[in-house]
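Summarise what follows for lecture notes:
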Amino acid sequence: IGLKRLDNLQVLTEEVIRKGIPGDLIEAGAWKGGATIFMRAILKAHDVKDRKVWVADSFEGVPPPNDTVYPADAGNKLYEQDELAVSVDRVQTNFRMFGLLDDQVRFLKGWFKDSLPNAPIDKLAILRIDADLYESTTDALTHLYPKLVPGGYVIIDDYGAMETCARAVRDYRAMHRITEKVERIDWTGVYWQKSQEAEHR
């Protein structure tokens, strides 16, 4: 995800730890697990034992576009890229390489429309989304953003790189009257902090 987005993830994670903003950490669209491994490493470095890192992915690549419901995804061919399909066993092995696979790491396997609605997550302090498609980004926001606590952060990896993702974010923010300023990380990544006022919207 590049050094600037890694730096951003570290800064925001350390901020929620330092300020005592409650909640777990998740990446929706984890691929090989790099960002979630980094999240777990930050928690370990700060001896944080009361937060979980959730690794949400199909572990089968990107779903074929459902363009009858989500026309923005029409023609998308990412589902044909085999390198995007990394098994849960491989990701767990990657965690083990750093000595970071433990009971503070939880895996949510499946398409987001299936795995996220009933995910056993109470509160989130960090919500990182790397989902490419309009549908997948919308599913992640729909089912996870309401669990993000005021003061927590949402990070969108593909905002600059994928118009489908950017459009999903814009549409979700407009629909839910989210007005917090979107901050740019680098050429593609963005984030914003959920305000205290959001609790009452």
Summary: The longest strand covers residues 148-156. Residues 3-19 form the longest helix (17 residues). The mean pLDDT is 92. The CA atoms of residues 102 and 168 lie 34 Å apart.
